[in-house]
Amino acid sequence: MVGAKRWVLVVGVAVGLLAVGGGAGFLAGRMSAPDSPPPIRPAWAGEKVQHAAAARYGNMTLRPIGLTCGMHWVSGTHAEWEARGQYCRLGIVVNNVDTAFHDLDTGAQRLVDAAGKSYKPSFDAMRIRRQPDVMTIGAHDAVALDIWFDVPNDAQVVAAQLKGDDDPSGIDPVANTPRPAGGVRVPLSW
């Protein structure tokens, strides 16, 4: 009888120590986790990574993550097309900060050159690269996409005019977020 009690005690202590040790290891792993999420997509070869803060417009935040200019051709699975000047590809991450879905109009985004001239996305390049005209983004979701522009060869791109949605929202801070005409200007590095 004493041997059986001793055996139960030894097994109980062993199980308890294993549980505490395993829990401590789990907690140590959780406490050492990175404090920022991984990038939503890797940088393309030759892409200038952008470090601008996200711009708030309506129910969305828009953050440039990469810029590549100087491309003279775009190709896809079904076509290729020559630029009138040069293609610039702007990678952006868009977050829907609302509790309902909202639409992003990629055609409303603009690149701005050093002379202050703005450029809309290239219809041909966007089609060839199979990028959407309008994208519905779910509540609290984020997407990364590339927007293609055809700008003159001598244009020096210095900024993006980024525009979220103009949908109403039931969230007061979102409803009162400024929506500047033409979008929020975000400086780009090159």
Provide a brief overview of the structure.
By secondary structure, the protein is α+β, with helices and mostly antiparallel strands.
Task: Explain the layout of strands and helices.
Blueprint: H1 2-31, E1 48-49, E2 55-57, E3 60-75, E4 80-96, E5 102-105, E6 110-113, E7 118-119, H2 123-128, E8 134-137, E9 142-151, E10 157-162, H3 172-175, E11 184-187
Model description:
This is DUF4352 domain-containing protein. Residues 164-190 are annotated as: Disordered. The protein contains three helices and eleven strands. The protein is of the alpha+beta class and 190 residues long. It has helices at residues 2-31, 123-128, 172-175, and strands at 48-49, 55-57, 60-75, 80-96, 102-105, 110-113, 118-119, 134-137, 142-151, 157-162, 184-187. The chain is elongated, with a radius of gyration of 25 Å. The model is unreliable at 26-34 (pLDDT under 50). 21% of the residues lie in helices and 38% in strands. The termini are far apart. The chain folds into two domains: 1-33; 48-187, Immunoglobulin-like. The strands form three sheets. Strands 1, 2, 3, 4 and 9 form a five-stranded antiparallel beta sheet that branches. The protein has a four-stranded antiparallel beta sheet with strand order 7-6-10-11, with no helix packed on it. The chain has a two-stranded antiparallel sheet with strand order 5-8.
Assign the CATH architecture of the largest domain: Sandwich
Helix/strand-derived category reads alpha+beta
Oligomeric organization of the protein chains: single chain
Sheet having the most strands: 5 strands, antiparallel
Element-level helix/strand string = HEEEEEEEHEEEHE
Classify the beta-strand content into a percent band.
35-45%
Question: What is the CATH first-level class name of the largest domain?
Answer: Mainly Beta
Report the count of strand segments.
11
Q: What's the overall geometry?
A: elongated
